[in-house]
Each structure stands twice: as structure tokens, then as C-alpha cells.
Amino acid sequence: MDSEKPTRAINPVFARTRKAILQKLGDPVAHVNKNPTNFVLVHEGGHGAWCWYKVADLLQKSGHTAIVFDLAGSGLHTTRPDHISSLQQYAEPLLEALRSISDSEKVVLVGHGLGGMCLAYASEIFASKIAVAVYLAALMLPEGFESLERHMNKDIQLACTLLRPVPSALSRAKAENVTDKGYGCVRRVYIKTTKDRAFPVGAQDTMIKMNPPHRVLSLNCDHSPFFSAAQELHRMLLGISVAYGR
Asked: Can you list the positions of beta strands (E) in 76-187?
């Protein structure tokens, strides 16, 4: 009879510590079907829901929900960009998505680039539904938003095919009516993109200094981490959901 190989005992303290570390780092395996989170992903100006396809797929495979949509005048949205007259009109698809979320649930709200303007606007209206707002190389100003100038593999070809003009109304958009009871009570995490040429890291640092978030993280990538660093961004978002999602 073959002798059985001895089973190596696992120190329960080590096991718990390892699990905690993996969860803090955002290990996908630690999150599958455990405390599923609603991630609402808001695209950059001129982009569309299409830009999140890698990250949304990774989040869904990790057992979470990824909610993506085209902002007004973006992606496949039927409104022409030059017919957008206000930030409210531009952000309406985001507001509609948040209205559909039960009052008993909270979301991790992620905005990229000019999408940060929509995050601030939505935070003022739906603060109670937002566990944390994640600004991904995004505008993060509590008031007086200003416009920014904007940026061949398959991802670049896709972007060149689907990009649409940024509504000119956004250059005049302001967020002067944010309050401590709305925008001010939503926890904010900023993710810097350190190789960003569209929104240089120096400009990101200046904005962070002007309006400090609760936490600052960094990705060593360009302005489109949903393409160039999708795995790293996915892992980082899972870690944020653990730290702030409940």
C-alpha cells in the first residue's frame, strides 16, 4: 500500500493575513462572488462606453457589476455634440443610471478625464448612493471647472474610429453649487497617470493640491489606462472597492 503524503498544515493566522493583504491589493480571486459591487464607469470627453470594454469585462469576471453608457453626444448617443447646451444635459445618462440604483445600494463611481465634471455633478445629487468617487486622471475641482485641451495598435484604431467631438458647452460648464452635504460628503480617490501627455502629471498634482482627495494612487501609464493598463486598473479598482465600497 502506498503511504499517503503528509498534509502540510496552514497557519490560520497566516491564512487570514494573506487573505487581507490580497483583498487590500485588489486580487481578483479574492473578490469573485464575494460582496459584489456596482461599478459605474464614466468615460472621457469625446469617448464612449466602448472605451471601458476591457475593464468592464474584468470586473464582471470578478463577480461584480460594471455599468457603462454613452454620455449625451458621445459614442452611439443620438444627440449631436453641438446640440449639448449644459453639463446637466451632457451628464443625464449618468444621472439616469444612478436613478436606477436602489436606495439601499451604493456604487463605486469612476470617472476619466472630463468625466470628472460629471462625477462632481452626480455626487451633489446622489451622494447617498456613492460609496466612493474615483477620479482617473480626471478633473476634480469643487467649483469653477475649466476646460482642458485634449490625445497603432487595435485600441488606438478603435479610438480613432469612435471618438466624437467634445460638446463645446463643457468649456463653459461650472460646478458652483456643490455643497458639503452633497459633493463634500462623498469620499474621493484620485488615480494619477504618470506618463500622461494629454493631462500631464504636473497638472494632476496641482489639482490634487488644490482639492485634496481622501487618497491618491498612481498608475505608470498614459491617459488611457483602460487600454494600456487594464489589468492594473482593474486590480486597483477592486482594492478601492474593498477599502471604501461599503
From this structure: 107-112, 130-136
